[in-house]
Hints:
Layout: H1 9-17, E1 29-32, H2 38-47, E2 55-58, E3 79-86, H3 90-94, H4 96-112, E4 117-119, E5 123-126, E6 129-138, E7 143-150, H5 158-161, H6 167-171, H7 177-198, H8 201-209, E8 218-223, E9 226-235, E10 241-245, E11 248-252, E12 257-259
Parallel strand pairs: 1-2
Antiparallel strand pairs: 2-3, 3-7, 4-5, 5-6, 6-7, 8-9, 8-12, 9-10, 10-11
Bound molecules: biotinyl-5-AMP.
Biotinyl-5-AMP (BT5) binds near residues 67, 83, 130, 134 and 135.
Amino acid sequence: MTPDPILPEEFAGPLAMARERLGIFTHRVLWYSDVGSTNDIAGTLADQDSAEGLVVLADRQTAGRGRLGRSWASPSGAGIYVSVILRPSAAAARLLTLAAGVAVTDGIASATGLSAHVKWPNDVHVGGRKLAGVLAEGTATHVVLGIGINVQPAAYPPDVAARATSIEAELGRPVERGLVLAECLAALDSRYRELHETRGETIVESWRMRAAPMLGRRVEWESAGERHTGLAENIDEDGALIVKVGSERLRIRSGEVRWL
Ligand code: BT5
């Protein structure tokens, strides 16, 4: 699919201003006013050997998706819908979703002053509502990291409206999408480098600090057809959630937990 020829000034201006801090994301931004899913476009380009750091950005997605076949509401102009191509080491790939959560939380804070927190495994929340989500989709050679951030209030489907919030709704003032994108990409570049340089220890520590409101809360999950609950205590060095059930501690690596 061919991108639109010109990146709107709303994004081009802040990205140019932040240029020196964008690292691998400096070189190429493909802009689509209307697209199915930015992750699909980036995935196809990654399969065709596009370089690490390519950014695919859309004003609206008609088939934006989350994990496990869920959808991501992506109304025109209301959010940031972006995917980037990364080629991480196997060790770095393991913690990429957590690193992206930290980067998005920090990027939003530096662009707007809004303080949000991360929620395992891939959410950014404020006051019990979802502000942003991360979707990492990988093959042996690349990971496409997709990020959706709600910037303005929008007419979401009722199930999403009940659980979502936006930066503007939280702050009660207008916010520049381009500035939020630039700060998030700058933070992502720096966390991505950190992932490779420190083998992830500092990422795990940063994630824990930004998850404080969630740790200690009760979670529920299913395994082998049975429902279990426990207290979310921490994450370990591999990014797995450590849950206390009675006197035991369980490690939840992937799959679905529901925060109660
Ligand atoms: C996520 O999935 O949170 C990952 C979302 C990633 C979206 C980006 S946008 C750019 C790139 N291209 C794509 O196609 N996707 C990525 P998950 O944890 O499965 O959460 C999905 C759930 O969040 C849905 O089932 C809804 O309940 C809720 N939801 C959907 N749209 C939302 C929105 N805009 N704001 C808040 N919650 C939403």
